[in-house]
Write a structure and sequence with these properties.
seven-stranded mixed β-sheet, two-stranded antiparallel ribbon, 16% strand
Amino acid sequence: MAKLILGNFLRRHADRSPRLLRLLWALEGGLVSGLAGLTARLSPERASRMGRRLLQRLGPRLDKSRIIRWNLTVAFPEKSAAEIEALVPEVWGTLGALLGEYPHISAICDNPDGERVEFEDRSGARAMQPGGPPAVFVSAHLANWEIVPGILERFGKPATVVYTPLQNPRLDRMLRRAREDSGIDLVGREGAVRPLMRALREGRSVGLVVDQRVDSGEPLPFFGHDKLSSTAPAMLALRMGVELIPVQVQRRGDARFRIIIHPPVQADSEEATDEDRIRQMSRRLNRVFEDWIRERPGEWVCTKRRWPKTLQLPGN
């Protein structure tokens, strides 16, 4: 979060000064804690609206906007500079709404009448049948991906979720506690494979958000350019004999969403080696994410660089 606000300044200065870094962590923790306390007192709708409006105004002035602009330009070379620029505050607004909604995740998910969350199952998956087997559910950083585990649990699919610990230990404890208070079973990203396999063996599903660049990943096409992509979801699904199911989140308004369960991702050829099938499934998953992002580019929270810095853009 501090890098989100301070960008290159933080990397150049705070990383060389542990004292400054601790001070920034304390300030950041206090700021986030105060904002969380404020939004928790509001209704989910008002909290979402406040967060969206705040970051729509503040975000485009921050250093991270360069990365958002770059990611969008790579993904949408057909768009003009003005069209890309118009998407930047939309992306920030999506992130702001998510942050405002964070204290209300349980209330948003506890939604039996469908007022806040519409649920659409297009999958035909075995896992989505009553009493069906566990699955590997995958999503992207779109709209509010944080609601996916809670929604799955309310439809009888509790999931163990992989998360990336934050650099700020105070903030990491705060967000981890909020997730665990919502009943989410968390596993840190490092060394996650064994716990995830154990969860699947025990009949518990697995949830991952995997549209970001993974430095240890496979170079696979994403919007026409190779992105280091996680193959862990496909590997888990293939090795454990379960379905790999994409879950799309669309925003319908302030604290209002549509969850779409898509058909399981299959390999191109069942006769291929396991390694090739994993790559095939991972490529298909990237194409699924591309389709979602093209539908709603302003809901793609792309504040982290997706492609190598060496990638040359047209006109550069």
